[in-house]
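Researcher: Before we compare anything, I want clean individual predictions. No alignment, no superposition, just each chain on its own. First chain goes here; please echo the sequence and then give the structure tokens.
Model: Echoing the first chain and its structure:
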Amino acid sequence: MDDEKYMKLAYQQALLAKEVDEVPIGAIIVNHDGEVIAQAFNQKESLQDVTAHAEMLVIRKACQKLGTWHLDNCVLYSTLEPCIMCSGAIIQSRMDKVVYGASGQRWHGISEYLRCHQFNHYPEVIGGILEEECCQLLSDYFRMKRNRT
């Protein structure tokens, strides 16, 4: 699979989040055939739901589309390293691989979570794909928010 190609699609989702004044994080899930089966962006503010992270929403959509909670043979692409909550859902869904852009700066993400705990499933994790673009989008968003207040 072309990780950069799919990360660009996740990045497009992040741009949609920014348009509606959500933290610009986007995610997609691709099946073993390379087909995008779900896409989502952060909607915590819009839905007033603390669990409405892009990764959680895209996992729900993929499960609904496939009619199962097992997402083995699928890859999740996220513009930001998934948090611990999202990491739990990724592990539970048996996702094969996780690819992210920017590393989490404020708390531990999936890399640290997998390293420090024992689980019955470990997805492959690749970080830093389109990292500069993903970091810049987040930095610009929060700079704009600070300047508005």
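Researcher: Okay. Second chain, same rules.
Model: Second chain and its structure:
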Amino acid sequence: MRTRALVTAATLTALAAGSLVVPLAVAGPATAEPSQQREDFNGDGYTDVAIGVPKANGKAGAVVVTYGSASGVSPSRSARITQDTAGVPGTAEAGDQFGENVTSGDVNHDGYADLIAGAPHEKVDGKPDGSLSIIWGGAKGLTGGGIALVSPTSDDRNFGQGASFSDLDGDGTAQLQVVSGRHFWWYSESTPKGDGSDVALPLEDDFLPEDVQLDGVAAGHFSGSSGNDFVLYGKRGDGDGDYLATFRGGAGDIGHSHSVLSDGGTEVRSAAAGDIDKDGWTDLVTGEPAGGQEAGAVTVWWGAPGGLNTGREHVVYDQTSPGVPGTGESGDSFGADVSVRDVTGDGYADIAVGVPAEVVRGSNAGTVVLLKGSADGVGTTGAQTFHQETTGVPGTGEDADRFGASVHFADINNNGKADLFAGAGGEDIGTVADAGAVWVLRGASSGLTTDSITSFNGSDFGFTGNTGLSFGEVFDH
């Protein structure tokens, strides 16, 4: 693709690319009592967003956190975190891929969300590969150091491949869950020590196929159980198809009651949860970018008292479905990433779908599709699509930009309407190839809007040597 300069939005024009290095201690002021928001690291009542940058520093990895505010997000209110940051456990080494996945939750129950970052390829002496770092939140942001967890058993691999934070047993207090290549673990509600003395409880091995390779986890109130249920997804060891199963939470034997949703079908690459039809049950959306006759598809699995897929039949959506914009073509990767949250403030969760190889004006530049929730499920009207050729979106769509390779909803200005973060890991910045960039589109009662849109890239956060950085490929899930 051609090299080009990314045009930043007016709200960022005062920031010269490469001129801003933001230390860990920089954070927005804590002007309110500590918030219980899952994604609020500094307790100011605004949602913060973590961006994983696993290809930074020779793939040692990094995480950028943008702090929310009434005016949105900006590199001037952010933190850049690596395993060489003071107080962060571990040592940044090439290939660790720290930030390969990121999420958040109040792990130590002090009222501030903590950053949870996986490094599934980290080498740990005497342990299988992989670690999970927890960086403590506080009134000054992510400045309080942290701990690292490693696999409890020797037969594991890629510990920290995924993580979630939810109340599995239904007692009102959430706990940490971790996915490795071979196992699913959860911790007690007490604060992990990080010294190896913590006992992580495994999902019984006979609940999972022997050859499954787990990739991720999503949690939600999918059923009538007292706690949150969880969904595990991955692929079979021979690489032939997917594995997707739901496990029941609640008091007692967590995960004992489970149901396989898909085994051997099109591989699930992403998953997100939210109440799309506002019936009180969490729904699950899975992205299958090789589905839909290799053009890509998303599947909506409806929550119900009996659990996912026990009430309304699941529905597959692709670009041949009524109301879904675009034309499905082989290799589009519709569903490469998905996110679910209420954009319009009407109480119905909406779905963002990344389509990173969609053809835009003759090039495979990529796009993002917004599908709106309704009482009937996914609405057939009001869908939107955005790309770099959309009026008001900075930049120019070019081949292999991969706009929409990652998507994430977050209400960054606390107005009750989710805003969309869209990443393009293949975006060139000037002559720097595949540096990557992120755009933030605001939510409104009519849907997503380009009003007050912002965009930024790795150089705005002090990264140098950004060829192949692919900034924006990983968001908090």
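Researcher: What stands out in the second chain?
Model: Confidence is low (pLDDT under 50) at residues 1-36. Additionally, The longest strand covers residues 447-457.
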